[in-house]
Amino acid sequence: MNDNLKPSSNIVIKFSGDSGDGMQLTGTMFSNLSAILGNEISTFPDYPAEIRAPQGTLGGVSGFQVHIGSGRVFTPGDEADVLVAMNPAALKVNAKNIKSIGSIIYDTDTFTRSDLEKAEFTTDNPFDELKLMEKVQLVPVPLTSLTKKSLEGFDLDNKTVLRSKNMFALGLICWLFNQPIDKAISFLESKFDAKKDLQTANIKVLTDGFNYGNNLHMVVSPFYVYKSENLEHGLYTSVSGNKATAWGLIAAAEKAGVQLFLGSYPITPATDIMQELALRKDMGVKVMQTEDEIAGINTALGASFAGALAATNTSGPGLALKAEALGLAVMAELPLVLIDVMRVGPSTGMPTKTEQADLQQALNGRNGECPLVVLAADTPANCFDYAFQAAKIALEHSTPVILLTDAFIGNGSSLWKLPKLADMPAIKLPLPPENLEKFTAVTRDPETLTRYRVVPGTPKMMHRIGGLEKDSVKGSISTDPVNHEKMVAMRRRKIENVPVPDVKIEGNPDAEILIVGWGSTYGHLISAIHQLNEDGKKVALAQFNYLFPLPKNTAEVLKKYKKIVVCELNGGQFANYLRANNNGIVIEQFNKIQGQPFTVSEIVEHFNKLV
Amino acid sequence: MEEIQQYTAKDFKSDQYVRWCPGCGDHAVLNVLQKTMAELGIQPHETVVVSGIGCSSRLPYYMNTYGFHAIHGRAAAIATGVKVANPKLSVWEVTGDGDCLAIGGNHFIHSVRRNIDINVLLFNNQIYGLTKGQYSPTSKRGAITKSSPFGTIQDPFRPAELTFGARGTFFARTLDVDLKTSQMIMTAAQKHKGTSICEILVNCVIFNNGVYGWISERETRPDRTIVLEHGKPMIFGKNNDKGLVLEGLDLKVVNIGENGISEKDILIHDAKCVDTTLHLKLALMEGPEMPIAMGVIRDVDKSSYEAELERKIEEGKNAKIHHFDELIESVEQWEM
């Protein structure tokens, strides 16, 4: 262990640089190392839509924030204890989000006059200009020249040498946080297994970065983050929400004993789900990258009819394109999982940034009376559980299900206690009873109203499904007015029959104020509630994962509190939805529409004013 | 093994009353389809008929098979999903010129490019019937319709050209009234492994009556059309006295027995030829100088998309991970 360790329970580190500087890789490696060494983690990649914006400009800054801690870590953290700034633009973009008494490690080689100008600084002292001199400890390190020196004698071109400086920074950070680098080395060994020269070079730079901290006794003292002790014992990994979503579908298909089909079109920030599933030919997963979003969902509907667990993944603009086919899925009563990894809208909006503004589109964005199940996951790891649950509901109730995640939890990662298939709930396919006299497009379970599942290839049960209204008894097409009203009511009742767990209350049991959230805001809201309650404010949280149908206890819960405030990353869509469904209950709202998650401190501040 | 039962056309008829207009060309196509399926020994329960929106897209309701009457333009995508999920099924797509080539144009070209093993019955009547008479992507330039009262000012798509442009492996054509050729091309489509485009020229008695009258009349048809068959000379005419030859880069009609031309001078149809040049020339022949080509114009062997996908999955069986628990075991993990 290093001398003069600063013990700490929670630390936030932000790696920031040009989008070509390898910050996402550096951040991912560091968070995995931290988790392996026994810390809880939460991460948040924040990157520009441009693949390579002009070097050194504000628009090209790519960041990766890591929160590591010994206690429960629910969010990637508001402000950074340590900022690694690879250039002046990275410094400028992150200046607002550095803690007082925090540290900035920066590459002195990139703080030349022209670099400063590219980042739109007007003086020679960017720290003074940003009013950081009093607030933070500066750690100047000539990262570029040290990396060049480290790789002297290697037969590498200048570009490759410069691209290795992220490993120097990682080595330095490992030293600063008292983390041995052998795990990082073994990671690099496998990553560059096919390119031995790059493997050796990266390991050399990483090691030199670590030794630089160790030998030169840098002015900043290293941190020591206690190991987590209050976690449930077990095997863990670090997982992103998109990967967890993909694996939830895989688990559900195996549990149900059906094949998995994904029809998909690339769209930020949802594409990782397709790419993760495309890897799994060994498990028989069928993935089609189709010609457009519309074909993505329609191939899935075809596959669903033919017996697969069918899914399609997208983001807001894609959900708009898929609306028509969702209506068909409702009308034809076919199981389907649609995952919407929400991003900033309307239209193309800010594709890499997070928002919760697709809620109303998911609930209502179709022609006709068109109810379907809508769920939302709230952490990267539980995207797995909700993807599984979405598939279970779709298959068991012959209905489309929309699962809402977003750029924040889709790209972010958290610790995940590894599940076993045997521990997952059973999925029971709605097969018809054996004594049926005739099977038609509307033959259903009289109690749940679920249409029975019969797939092509089954003898003597041929039937025709489609988007036209059907006679509720005969299954043939019908324009009878009364029949239509009956079918509309039946389709709604069927979805309302889907069992939904009660919404839970966390926080102070005697609270007067209830904070209501849904989906990915959970981490920030629960952290804020812990802090508010520690400060003696009586606040509780109701976080919703089931958005349609709503939990049966919703009205009962809301009635208990004097003040109800819905916090969400949109203009008030869930608040309005609750108002419409809970006549007479006053519902206030607190919103943020900046393409960024809430910060814990802004929630705490808001409720401190209210209490 | 499951016993293969023999069926008749009647077994493929559903209990639904057929609601097309009396005299509509679609009736004949439906009857031929049911007859063809029965004679091919296709099992009704292993058959899926998928359609989009339009008059012809009502067809699945009249078939005693599995059926999916979908949404406008999307039949190709849905049929693709059905076939990929279960390659054992015989999958038929029923679509019209508007459904397939306007709103569904993107799905059409991409299904053809992928060479999914589906049989596409493209009912081409050059008009929107169900919405009562607007011009379609196959309406001739200048066509007067309800939405083009002064004539259209655009060229139509030619389905064969699109199919070849999308690297199609099968293209055939027939007339609604020509039951024999219709059955011949449907049979060939079912046997072909890949996307089989069957363009069926159908008459809309209400909004575009007689659009194919000049080739569909029993009297004049033999002289104005040519039914192509693989390996046979391109001979046509009421008296089988006309043939096609190449002159330079163009096709030309010649009279057998005149100017020293005998049957051996006539081109032999090669539907299996990979190069599309001659197939395109045949498919684009226009009257009155040239006969309209019917029959199987192109039928080229190439592996289909779903067969390739099954092969990849088969290869995957050599890998170590087949179950979810094995997938979980494969990740980097640590005890906490």
Describe the structure.
The complex is a heterodimer of chains A (611) and B (336). By secondary structure, chain A is α/β, with parallel strands linked by helices. Chain A folds into three domains: 6-225, 3-Layer(aba) Sandwich (Pyruvate-ferredoxin Oxidoreductase, domain 3); 237-423, Thiamin diphosphate (ThDP)-binding fold, Pyr/PP domains (Rossmann fold); 505-610, Rossmann fold (3-Layer(aba) Sandwich), CATH 3.40.50.920. Chain A contains 21 helices and 23 strands. Chain A has a seven-stranded mixed beta sheet, sandwiched between helices. In chain A, strand 14 (373-376), helix 15 (383-397) and strand 15 form a beta-alpha-beta unit. Chain A is globular and about 85 Å long. Chain B is an alpha/beta fold and 336 residues long. Chain B has a domain at 9-211: Thiamin diphosphate (ThDP)-binding fold, Pyr/PP domains (Rossmann fold, 3-Layer(aba) Sandwich), CATH 3.40.50.970. Helix content of chain B is 29%, strand content 20%. Chain B contains eleven helices and 14 strands. Chain B has helices spanning 26-40, 75-85, 97-103, 105-114, 159-165, 179-191, 213-216, 221-224, 277-283, 305-316, 324-329; strands spanning 47-51, 66-69, 90-96, 119-124, 127-128, 134-135, 170-175, 196-201, 225-228, 235-236, 242-247, 250-255, 292-299, 334-335. In chain B, helix 1 (26-40) packs across helix 6 (179-191) and helix 3 crosses helix 4 (105-114). The longest helix of chain B has 15 residues, at 26-40. Chain B is globular and about 90 Å long. The mean pLDDT of chain B is 96. Classes of the chains: A alpha/beta (611), B alpha/beta (336). Chains A and B meet through helix 1, strand 9, helix 10, helix 12 and helix 13 of A and strand 1, strand 2, helix 2, helix 4 and helix 10 of B.
